[in-house]
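Kindly inspect this chain:
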Amino acid sequence: MFQSAPILLGQYRPMDSFLHRLDARAKLLPVLLVMILGLLTDSPVFYLTLLTALILSLLLSGITIRTLARNLKPILILVGITFLYHVLFSGRGGEAVFDIFGFAVTYDGLSKAVFFSMRLMLFVVIAFLVTLTNSPSELAEAITSLLKPLERIGVPAGDLGLILFIAIRFIPILYGEFVAVRNAQIIRGVDFSGSLINRIRKTAAILIPVLVGAIGRADELALAMEARGYRSGKRRTFFRQSVFDRNAWLFMLGSSAGVVLLYYITG
């Protein structure tokens, strides 16, 4: 069966919502704060609360529950593998709850499995939200603008923004090539059904032509940039002038204060 549904990660969906109209810089600063505090806290309540708020924000931005569930399916597989790993191999020596194939599952292992799975989900949903409500060019310009004061100490803000822009743009392109190669193999009689091990083994064979295609695209992109006179470190202007209005200030300050307050409340 052909697979044609696009992924959301790395793809901008132009819609008319509050988050779409908001300046990208107002979202990046709270996101950075969430990621920093998320690495410092060990409270599942912190992750669960933020996950709920982020999913509600996605739904308010025009994404249906069905679409969100379909596009989060590959991530849920990775989360399941993370959960299973910590259940089986973390928390050795603690009080056993039950056994799975001879492995003792402990309370400590279960708590670590839930904790790291929720952390992974939180960071992925943040990436979905940011890329959904901002175009790659807006994100690149926001990163460049935020890092511009660091140019005095030698940080190449413009180059970092360009790297981010190219990386985000390449995610849906590589996924499209992956689907095209997979569909071509299905037409030639390759069966991707069966056990999980068999599907992984056959899917791994797709990665080689996709990798070769990615290297070719990168080489063509480098030649195109050089032909158009791109030079690293040169001062550039923005095509679109973003305005950090009152709504942006209120959102940035309010969401940042809410994240810090939640961090202290959850201990």
Summary: The radius of gyration is 22 Å. The longest strand covers residues 96-100. Residues 196-227 form the longest helix (32 residues). Strands lie at 96-100, 103-106.
